[in-house]
Design brief:
Elements lengths: L9 H5 L15 H11 L11 E6 L7 H14 L4 E6 L4 H5 L12 H9 L6 H4 L1 E2 L6 E4 L8 H6 L7 H8 L1 H4 L4 E6 L5 H8 L3 E7 L4 H18 L6 E9 L4 H13 L9 E2 L2 H5 L12 H4 L4 H16 L25
Parallel strand pairs: 1-5, 1-6, 2-4, 2-5, 6-7, 7-8
Antiparallel strand pairs: 3-4
Helix pairs in contact: 3-15, 5-8
The structure holds adenosine-5'-triphosphate (ATP) and magnesium ion.
Adenosine-5'-triphosphate (ATP) binds next to helix 3, strand 7 and helix 13.
Length: 341
């Protein structure tokens, strides 16, 4: 488990309302942030709802999916949320980013867990989860290369589109520990990525602001349309995070303008900047010293942008604290719903 000392001051950046409760200058852990927010939120009237699932997708590699999942997970955990990350990519970049070694350890990845649920065997989720931060604030179900085999068994499986949704449903007690489940995916469309998307009413797309962003969005949109057409009653949508903004290049502006024109109301108003800080977060020469920008460089522009995005997405996806209803005093109410015009 990681030493999270570096992150504590960042909590204030994420939750400016905390300054009214705790004197500025005092350090706050994710658990303390959660407790402070829970004190102000309205208690749930019924059973806690299932955790929100956000599946991060794009029909292109290297656009920043893993970067977003890792940083968003860290930011939401700093806000006091309990977050489960799922590495749904055999490349295991999220596993690496979280400081685990995908070559050395024998993980029970999400494909295996879904297969157990499909065969009506106990999923044994507790054995598969690896804590990244203490107290269940940031856990991960890691991946390794053997996740590529998931499509083999899914090929012959009835209702394979629902394989992930079934795992969630049949292990509702386990997943209720978390406020949100964030899923990283591989770029190519596969049975696995389709099943991972199906558990969420709205996929979260990442569009890198280079020349290929519009084309990649069109491919992803066609993939979502196809799923919706194949499954009666399904109306999966998508919301887009634009990544890699570099204001001084005209081509970046053109990419953003095209996305805003083609997908009005779907692009989040927070655009992640192009920055060396993101580049540094996965160090190929030092895989066990990885870490998100939120942890490593919390005062960077990149971390500030991720914090703003996390507040906006917590509001958009209604990520609550253990089933509580936000009160007017809760810090979530300060979040922007945030969509660019
Ligand atoms: N805003 C950014 N500024 C600078 N570098 C970035 C930014 N976003 C991502 N990167 C870098 O780009 C590379 C690809 O990012 P990442 O691995 O998150 O993409 P991905 O979409 O998950 O790729 P893949 O499809 O291969 O899984 C990484 O080196 C990452 O650090
Ligand atoms: Mg990735």
């Amino acid at each position: 488990m990681r030493d999270i000392a570096i992150k504590l001051s960042t909590v204030r950046m994420l939750l400016p309302g905390l300054n009214a409760v705790f004197p500025p200058g005092s350090a706050l852990s994710p658990a303390q942030a959660r407790e402070a927010r829970l004190r102000r939120a309205t208690p749930p009237s019924a059973e806690p709802p299932p955790p929100k699932v956000i599946t991060v997708r794009m029909a292109k590699g290297g656009v920043g999916k893993t970067t977003l999942v890792g940083n968003l997970g860290a930011a939401l955990a700093m806000m006091g949320h309990k977050i489960l990350l799922i590495d749904g990519d055999p490349q295991a970049s999220l596993t690496l980013l979280m400081g685990l070694d995908p070559w050395a350890e024998g993980f029970s990845h999400i494909g295996e867990l879904m297969h157990r649920a499909y065969r009506r065997e106990p999923a044994r989720l507790d054995d598969a989860v690896v804590p990244v931060w203490p107290d269940g604030h940031l856990d991960i179900i890691p991946a390794d290369l053997s996740l590529t085999a998931a499509d083999h068994w899914m090929m012959g499986a009835v209702s394979r589109e629902y394989a992930f949704a079934r795992l969630l449903r049949e292990n509702a007690g386990f997943f209720a520990r978390y406020d949100a489940v964030l899923v990283d995916t591989a770029p190519a469309t596969s049975l696995l990525t389709n099943a991972l998307m199906m558990a969420s009413p709205e996929a979260l797309a990442v569009a890198m602001l280079d020349g290929s962003s519009v084309k990649a969005m069109e491919v992803l949109e066609a993939n979502i349309d196809e799923i919706n057409a194949a499954i009666p009653g399904l109306d999966m949508g998508f919301h887009v995070v634009a990544n890699g903004w570099h204001g001084s290049y005209a081509s970046y502006r053109k990419s953003l303008e095209s996305l805003l024109r083609i997908y009005p109301g779907r692009i989040n108003s927070t655009v992640l900047p192009w920055s060396a800080a993101f580049k540094r977060q996965i160090d190929p020469d030092d895989p066990l010293c990885s870490g998100t920008v939120m942890e490593r460089e919390p005062s960077s522009d990149s971390a500030q942008a991720v914090a703003e995005l996390a507040r906006s997405l917590a509001s958009r996806y209604a990520i609550l604290l253990g089933g509580t209803v936000p009160s007017p005093l809760d810090f979530d109410s300060q979040a922007e719903a945030g969509e660019a015009a």
